[in-house]
Design a protein that fits this description.
Peptidase M60-like domain protein; five-stranded antiparallel β-sheet; Immunoglobulin-like; globular
């Protein structure tokens, strides 16, 4: 009915206000008509908006992600939650944006079950994060079938040692693909590449002491992590799937690096103190939330609604021993939780140590 091609309008009008382009078309739409706005980019056609949109369902799907970019899942997203949304999705009658975002969420959730992938000349090794992988089915594909599978934690044509799944055999220059089945049975590709592509991941793996990716090697700094982010984002040899995997590994490194900026957190009956390690904290933004409400922050070394002295940040807000406290740090739009304590674990920890204080070493925190 109307379109814009490289700035030329047909059947519509366009204007630019404050750097934003507005396109308007006076096309009559009758009751029962289905109208949509489509965007052709990168050789593919995408639906940007449609009368087939279901606002409530789309709102719940977008709520799975940390922001409007829909690139990262919020913490705590589970397979049952995705299954409920999939059960409410009628792809034949619903705007394709709903299905595209929900499938992206499913792939991201499955990718989170994998901590690392190693492709070498003699084997393919997959290390899983936690026990969630035992709820899914995975396949390692290369060479001729039968392929190695891992069904709900039971290996076939391979072996499982603790959380590490190993498929022995010469890979050569073959393409290796790792897939997993989602809750509705659809298969998602989590990794695809050969040894040459896998070499790109080597500098990322070298950030960590071992394949569990729970500790950084000595000497890792923000500059080295940022440089690897630039390599991953700009290297055309990296597939879209692998790029997402490498970003997730770098996100782990970034989280560990941010945790190293804090030596310890001390909570007493009515205040909280954060002891910083060195002066790196002056480059970041830390916030304290009490019962999920903003209480104070320290940004670029400047304290607000709190105080800082000798690398010790002290809250000003008084709170009770049963209040829930959380300290976060923000870096390039990503939030990392450094400390979190509610009534139960505060009382448990204080009973083991001093009568009125909880001291937490960051090495005990989850990645």
């Amino acid at each position: 009915m109307a379109w814009v091609d490289n700035g030329e309008c047909v059947g519509c009008e366009a204007r630019i206000e404050e750097g934003v382009a507005y396109v308007e078309a006076s096309t009559p739409i009758s009751e029962g008509d289905e109208a949509s706005v489509k965007v052709f980019a990168g050789g593919k056609l995408y639906t940007a908006a449609s009368t087939a949109s279901r606002p409530i369902l789309l709102f719940n799907i977008k709520a799975l992600f940390t922001d409007d970019r829909c690139a990262e899942l919020r913490p705590g997203i589970t397979q049952p939650r995705l299954d409920v949304l999939f059960s409410n999705l009628d792809e034949d009658r619903t705007d394709e944006l709903h299905g595209r975002l929900l499938n992206r969420a499913q792939r991201l959730l499955l990718q989170k079950t994998i901590r690392s992938v190693i492709v070498s000349a003699g084997l393919v090794q997959v290390t899983f994060e936690g026990e969630a992988f035992k709820s899914h089915d995975y396949t390692i594909i290369f060479g001729a079938p039968p392929y190695a599978t891992l069904e709900k934690g039971y290996p076939n044509g391979s072996e499982l040692i603790d959380n590490t799944w190993i498929r022995p055999g010469g890979v050569g220059h073959q393409e290796v693909t790792i897939t997993a089945a989602g809750g509705i049975g659809k298969t998602y590709t989590l990794f695809s590449g050969n040894i040459e592509q896998a070499k790109i991941a080597l500098p990322i793996r070298q950030l960590f002491t071992d394949s569990t990716m729970t500790r950084l090697v000595a000497g890792v700094d923000q500059a080295s992590v940022d440089a690897l982010y630039m390599t991953v984002n700009g290297n055309p040899l990296i597939s879209v799937t692998n790029r997402a995997a490498y970003r997730s590994y770098l996100a782990i490194a970034q989280s560990l690096l941010l945790r190293l900026t804090v030596a310890k957190v001390v909570r007493t009956d009515d205040l909280l103190e954060v002891y910083f390690e060195g002066d790196t904290f002056k480059k970041h933004n830390y916030k304290l939330f009490v019962n999920d409400l903003y209480a104070s922050e320290i940004t670029q070394g400047n304290a607000y609604y709190s105080s800082v002295s000798n690398r010790v940040w002290t809250s000003s807000k008084k709170f009770g021993g049963n209040d829930h406290c959380k300290v976060i740090v923000e870096y390039q739009g990503v939030v990392t939780t450094l400390y979190e304590s509610d009534a139960a674990d505060a009382m448990t920890a204080s009973a083991l140590q001093e009568s009125d204080a909880t001291q937490c070493g960051l090495e005990k925190f989850q990645v």
